[in-house]
Amino acid sequence: MAIRIIVVEDDDVVRKSTVSLLNAFGDLECVAAAASAEEFARLAPAVDADLALMDIGLPGQNGIECVRSMRPQHPNLLFMMFTSHNSWEEVFQALIAGAKGYVLKDDPPARLRQDILDVTQRRSPMSGQIAALVLEFIARAEAAMSSSSIDNLPGVWLLTPREREVAQYLREGLTDKEIAVRLNIAHNTVRTHVRNIYDKLEGYRRPRL
User: Fold this and answer.
1) 22-52: per-residue pLDDT in tens?
2) CA end-to-end span of the chain, whole Å?
3) What is the pTM of this model?
4) Please, how many CA atoms are within 13 Å of residue 70, restricted to the half-sphere of its CB?
5) DSSP three-state, residue 185
6) Ramachandran area for residue 173 (φ above 0: left; ψ -120 to 50: alpha; else beta)
7) Residue 161, exposed/middle/buried by CB under 10 A (0-12, 13-18, 19+)?
8) C-alpha neighbours within 13 Å on the C-beta side of residue 52
9) Disulfide check for 80: which of 16, 101, 137, 150 has CB 3.0–4.6 Å away?
């Protein structure tokens, strides 16, 4: 069965080309498209979808705010951010809001397809770029909050040494399988560590740095 996707993108050309691209893959199907967060909120309850491909820079409510507000209403719907932006701040806001992936609009089509497959199959991909941002944010938080009590530290501080190690290897460009070999652990264990990082980020509330 094809993975059912809702595309949320305000640019008409990008939205139509993305719909066509997704439908060209035999294992993906665009079941709906919206030009705004508000339109997405109206159509989502009536659409049986697995994943929403969500632009960040939407008019009105932006994509991050949309994910934050819609996640509780649609707990079985996965969200992946689809944007031309690549700042650490936006990545973290998206992940904290509940996004399970982040791809750039100029990524190769094969990369988009693979990331969608990974997210929907609960493999929770983390690109080297995102891993670098995760580690950068941890370093910023540690520098800003070094005198804080452990009880007051944000969830991102509670990454285990192994989770940090996995993120470091991802930043260096290693694949999940290569990390498994390097750490002498199962491939699925690496995926579990990545999924746990995403889960901790989603539960985190960012302090003022």
Assistant:
1) 999 999 999 999 999 999 999 999 999 999 9
2) 45
3) 0.76
4) 27
5) coil
6) left
7) exposed
8) 33
9) 101
